Give the backbone structure.
Amino acid sequence: MNQEMSSERLGLIDFLDLSDILLRHGTFRFRVASGSMYPALRKGDQLMVEPASPAQFQVGDLLLYHHRGQLICHRVVSLEKVGLGGRIVTKGDATTGPGEVLEPGQVLGRVVAVRRRGLWGAGLAILTDGWRTRFAPLVAQALLRLQGLRPYRQIMRGLVSRSFEYSIGVPEGRRWYHYERLCRDRGASGLNGNHGFHLLAKLGGSAVASLHAVRRGEDYWLDALYVRLRYRGLGAASQLLTFACHLASRNGAGRFLATVEAENSAALSLLDKMGFRSLTGSESDGTAVLCRDLPR
């Protein structure tokens, strides 16, 4: 008997995870989020997807596939033989254009059942989409202005700064990292002092900031530091830098350095607050090199 898995029980997953779920449970359910298949499918309709091989596909089937980081459900309009393989052409019922040409590896499964959303729910979804399209840009602009106010940032920093979770990515092979919870009073197991490290800050399970440091000789260098726009000013960047300097010191480095564009006043201000100093005569090509001495 196939065990069913619902999309409402899943968080953010990648497409390989979804393929594994389909193979393991045999069935996957999810809700339609766009109108590209209207009127055959409406927003809020629930689709049941099962794994299927390309040899089973027929013109008219509804396929769930991934394309450019998105999950899409469209109808097969033609099946083409190319050499020893094949290509699948799909198209949304409500879309114009020639459709999308898929490779078999993009397809995650075939829709085998549709559960309609009630008329009241469908009408509410249409009304909600209309309001969202109209007012979302205004709300976003208002939030950006609010975020620019110093009292707001101070209040939010006090509320959420203790809710951040920090992890370190430890290299696992040539291409992969595995992440483990970061604690200040101990190093990361498996971290090689001759290599760099990757730090991640999460809030509510979502990644909001990251830092990458590399080892060059006896020093560590800040290779990249990024904080998502809505989470800036809440302390994630300074905490990541604190962890980075601590790890560099534990690995025997005497200095932690960073190269910053001279026009990047926000980064220069942050590093200055974190105890970095500008190296004399280090400015060239519009950049500045800053350094923080580390205890050994």
In short: Residues 179 and 270 are 26 Å apart (CA to CA). The chain has three domains: 3-115, 119-147, 158-293. DSSP finds five helices and 16 strands in the chain.
